[in-house]
Task: structure prediction
Amino acid sequence: MGDVSMQQEKTEKLRLMQASVLVLGATLPQRRRLVAPLSRRLGLVECADDADSAAPLMSRCRFDFLLVFENGHRRDWLDWIESLRRDSDFRPVILCSDKLDRPAAAAAIRTGIVDLLSVDCVESDVVGAIERMQERAARGATAIPTQRIVSSDPRPDSLIGDSAAMREVKRLVGRIAPLPATVLIEGETGTGKELAARLLHSLSGRKGAFVPVNCGAISPELLESELFGHKKGAFTNAHQVREGLFVAARQGTLFLDEVSEMPVALEVKLLRALEEGAIRPVGADAETAVDVRIIASTQHDLPERVRQGRFREDLFYRLNVINIKLPPLRARHGDIALLAEFFMRSLAVELGLPAVALDKATFELLEAHDWPGNVRELKNVIERTLMLGEFPSGSIGTRRPAERLAVPEYPIDWTLEQVKCHHMRRVLESAGGNKSAAARRLGISRKTLERKLGVTDTPDI
Result:
């Protein structure tokens, strides 16, 4: 009974994580109270002030639920909800009202509203309403969709950019999403590898969940059990059965983030799972068939790691059926303004703060920066801007691209090794002391960078 209960709880949690909600008519305090907490528990939360601003959002994504705050406009909202039902575009509606008497409830139910909450509701109230509707849907009591359906166009909160490089990435994602092939996504940290993976899953039509796991964030001792599960008593402290993430992602997508950090001993088991479509939990005698699409990502040069014996060659070829390379932000400066404006709008709603206008000089400063942290770094700068109420001018460098590309002079009697080390130090300095970022720019591993700079003495100029 305990195992059945745990499985049911896991299923309900995954169902909740897939849900998408459009919040309509909420005031700024109501958004502050709900949007950020709901975003941490649900798959997608968007906001619109009225029916007109909701239309473009609803054309891009079929939201699972509509959370409507009447805020003195009951009749307008009821008429709009009724029009959705007439147009066969009805989605389950939760109405937040300050008038919850019996006649009002009856009128709401006639319109098609499936749950009523107070305008002072909090995150747990909304989640409870969604869970009730999902439970009814699971029993077949009402046809409430629990799987988000996304149009063929990428969502604006996924891969943003109109540069040639990003257009090619979007074209490739749209083409391969419905295919069952394994995909390897390459790109520096902060370029949006998980966003690309989520978009692939959203457009795939697969019924199961999108399940991400960072292979470098879990200790090697626990990663096997986390991925493949284990039987009760398989090892010390294995007091109950664990199904693992392959099972959690059944009929869905398992995203292996930073697959290059996976222990070599575990690579053999992953290779077999990919080739056989089956896994063997730790301590089990038999294999379990799983229907899972694998998407892997890495910020490292996997072919180089294969040559160094740090990654299995057969696993690399099995993962690299289709390859997507995400360009660094410094290679698509034309997208920076578009990204900055998107983050300004979305973060302003999430934080409940007014947007900060960015002038031409600020955009020029943003475009001059080389963004070692890529899109993630840009998002952090915009978030800091919102919190401070003004652009933090000292947060990024001010050097123009031409200055960054200038070649330094060095003594003619230096050895090649001294020149290399001097260049490594300059790159490390330009990366603000971030060794990982410097190593990526140099095309070497962080360990190689540390070894070179720690052992070789580079003379001062």
Summary: Residues 2-18 form the longest helix (17 residues). The radius of gyration is 26 Å. The first strand starts at residue 20 and ends at 24.
